[in-house]
């Protein structure tokens, strides 16, 4: 029996509704766009037919490294632009469904341009177009799932999106392996994006708009009809949930959306935005996209060949992401995973870099086979540590710490920081470092040093958000001035207490206890 103001229990069960689960699983497939386009260029860069078509020499040099950086960054640039603009201009204004359709069409169009590329400029154009599409779907997809999924399994279904990103990277590596020596192999790998985009466009015919968006546009009857279908035809459940949506929308309308000026001038808005942007920046600059987009180049420089050593790191990444998002994050907490995950990433990169430098033969330019497999082991460990912590954790964390009034703008800024400066810098630096005297060993050591510098940030600037409502999270960042920042750092150093709880702990220490 449902209590007044409460949803009946059956709404929250894992078997709540096969239609809701199917719709969410289908929309989560757009995570393949993100992972596949990011990972497919990894081995395409090493295909003989591709290098011949682009006029690149067999061995990488500074010029080729620069073109590789531009090619990878074409995707990042497109995604960064659309990440900022899509949330406000498309997703919030016109709906999640149209955003998914437009993003999928652009992804397919970008894939077609890449597959048909006759030169590097055309390839980069295709990467930009596909990036714009992925920027849109990476905003609309998780938002759609979060608004449609039953509450009890919402986190798991959103996690499927991120796991699809990982699975797509593995799929790209497998396909590249089998078509590596074909004359049209690289065109097949890049052209698969067209099929993926068209598949989603066709499947969207069976997908509804989210009830929350419909309600926000005053289409209450339509919202109730769709929500009833999503909740096993139980109109009582749907009506109660719609009332909660209406109450939340009224609250949003009363508070209003903050201006851009308020985002940067109001201290507690600015604090959350700065920490969110740094979290997204560090997620990329600690080396993950170097491993995803340039692992083929890196392994080639290490003298490692074969499908197994190429695949294992990505399988490890996928496994770590699944363990972290499904099993650990709500038990161990966000801060614990981000802090210790970064420490593990640091150790693995340091060990791999030192091993590569020590085992490198300056005369032959090769690395001992045993040392090569030790380095692969450290990369596998790094990928698992990243997957279990920062892979999904950075995205989850920024969605939890942003105040309601600035959430749209703030999450857009943080996403743009990830796609833009972090990805662009990483994509330009990585091939240049591998091709330089630093080599693969110096490259790994560089990212190990970056990880080392991020550990103090994770220890002092990331309050724990596990088990807290939004109303409880926001005050943790509500400080101003150096004295407030010192209390914020002190509270986090004491276990992720943040600002308000740090003040409370400080006060509690001064209160005498009864004996």
Identify the CATH class of the largest domain: Mainly Alpha
Summing up helix and strand content along with how strands pair, one would put the structural category as: mainly alpha
For the largest beta-sheet, the strand count, sense and barrel status come to:
none
Gap from first CA to last CA: 47 Å
The overall pLDDT average reads 82
Overall number of strands: 0
Low-confidence stretches: 1-16, 507-515
Our count of helices gives 22
The global form is: globular
Label the CATH architecture of the largest domain. Up-down Bundle
What would you say this structure looks like, in words?
The chain is mainly α. The protein has two domains: 15-207, MFS general substrate transporter like domains (Growth Hormone, Chain: A); 258-497, Growth Hormone, Chain: A, CATH 1.20.1250. Helix content is 79%, strand content 0%. It is built from 22 helices and no strands. It has helices at residues 18-28, 31-44, 48-54, 62-94, 96-115, 120-148, 154-179, 185-203, 211-216, 220-230, 235-255, 260-265, 267-302, 307-332, 334-359, 369-388, 390-401, 407-435, 439-461, 470-473, 481-493, 498-510. The longest helix is centred in the middle third of the chain and has 36 residues, at 267-302. The chain is globular. The two termini are 47 Å apart. Residues 1-16 and 507-515 have low confidence and may be disordered.
């Amino acid at each position: 029996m449902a209590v007044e103001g409460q949803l009946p229990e059956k709404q929250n069960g894992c078997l709540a509704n096969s239609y809701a689960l199917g719709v969410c699983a289908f929309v989560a497939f757009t995570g393949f766009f993100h992972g596949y386009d990011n990972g497919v260029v990894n081995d395409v860069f090493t295909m003989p037919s591709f290098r011949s078509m682009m006029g690149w020499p067999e061995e990488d040099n500074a010029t080729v490294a620069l073109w590789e950086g531009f090619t990878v960054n074409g995707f990042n640039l497109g995604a960064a632009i659309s990440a900022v603009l899509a949330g406000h201009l498309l997703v919030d204004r016109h709906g999640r469904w149209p955003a998914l359709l437009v993003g999928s069409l652009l992804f397919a169009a970008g894939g077609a341009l890449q597959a048909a590329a006759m030169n590097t400029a055309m390839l980069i154009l295709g990467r930009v177009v596909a990036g714009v599409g992925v920027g849109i779907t990476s905003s609309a997809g998780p938002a759609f799932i979060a608004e449609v999924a039953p509450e009890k399994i919402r986190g798991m279904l959103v996690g499927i999106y991120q796991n699809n990103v990982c699975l797509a990277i593995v799929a790209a590596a497998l396909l590249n392996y089998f078509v590596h020596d074909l004359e049209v192999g690289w065109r097949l790998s890049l052209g698969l994006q067209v099929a993926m985009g068209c598949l989603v466009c066709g499947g969207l015919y069976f997908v509804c708009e989210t009830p929350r968006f419909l309600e926000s546009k005053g289409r209450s009857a339509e919202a109730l009809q769709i929500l009833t279908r999503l909740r096993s035809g139980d109109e009582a459940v749907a009506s109660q949930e719609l009332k909660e949506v209406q109450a939340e929308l009224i609250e949003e309308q009363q508070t209003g959306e903050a201006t851009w000026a308020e985002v940067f001038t109001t201290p507690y808005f600015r604090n959350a935005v700065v920490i969110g942007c740094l979290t997204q920046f560090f997620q990329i600059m600690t080396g993950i996209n170097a491993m995803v987009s340039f692992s083929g180049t890196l392994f080639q420089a290490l003298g490692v060949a074969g499908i197994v050593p190429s695949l294992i790191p990505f399988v490890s990444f996928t496994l770590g992401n699944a363990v972290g998002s499904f099993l650990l994050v709500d038990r161990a907490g966000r801060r614990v995973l981000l802090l210790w995950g970064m420490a593990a990433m640091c150790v693995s990169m340091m060990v791999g870099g030192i091993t590569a430098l020590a085992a490198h033969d300056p005369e032959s330019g090769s690395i001992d086979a045993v040392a090569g497999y030790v380095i692969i082991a450290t990369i596998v460990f790094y990928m698992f540590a990243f997957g279990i912590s920062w892979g999904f954790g950075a995205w989850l964390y920024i969605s939890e710490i942003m105040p309601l009034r600035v959430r749209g703008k703030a999450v857009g800024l943080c996403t743009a920081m990830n796609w833009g400066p972090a990805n662009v810098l990483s994509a330009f630096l990585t091939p240049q470092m591998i091709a330089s005297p630093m080599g693969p060993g110096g490259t790994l050591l560089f990212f190990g040093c970056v990880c080392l510098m991020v550990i103090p940030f994770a220890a002092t600037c990331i309050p724990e958000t596990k088990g807290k409502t939004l109303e409880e999270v926001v005050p943790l960042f509500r400080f101003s001035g150096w004295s407030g920042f010192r209390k914020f750092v002190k509270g986090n150093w004491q276990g992720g207490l943040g600002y308000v709880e740090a003040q409370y702990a400080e006060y509690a220490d001064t209160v005498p206890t009864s004996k």
